[in-house]
Amino acid sequence: MNDSLTDIVRCAVARHLDVEPADVRSWHRFERDLGLNPLDVTLIALDLEEIEDIELPIDRLHELRTVAELTALARAVVRNDDGHSDDDSHVRFGFGHPSTKAPTRPAG
Question: Would you give the DSSP letter of residue 29?
Fold first, then answer.
């Protein structure tokens, strides 16, 4: 990630809403201002993970209320000081972690 993280987050939110990035402000609240529900925020976070090759702690997404808070969480993950250095939520949910393999069915 780089110094344009705020723009990247705004663009991800805008893309989800199908609006121009200039229409999304850091102070916008997901639910009240943008009409987004928790599933929308999770989908945006997954998009950011893919774009920036990071892993956001899924157990913290429900705490996020604004675009700025999502940006701050992403910055914390990049700096590795998000307080979840041993976080295994991505393993519990079975996605996003390189050491996690998809379950396989037994033959026959």
Answer: B
Q: Which residues pair with 29 in a beta bridge?
A: 66
What residue has token string 């808070």? 69
Name the packing angle between helices 38-52 and 5-17 (round to 10°).
130
Per-residue pLDDT of the chain (108 residues; tens, 9 = 90+): 345 899 999 999 999 999 999 999 999 999 999 999 999 999 999 999 999 999 999 999 999 999 999 999 999 998 885 444 444 443 333 334 444 344 445 555
Q: In order of start, what are the domains of the chain with their CATH numbers? A: 5-92 (1.10.1200.10)
66 SS3 class: strand
Confidence (pTM): 0.71
Helices (H), 18-108: 38-52, 67-79, 89-92
Q: What is the DSSP letter of 86?
A: T
Under 8 Å between Cβ of 44 and 56: no
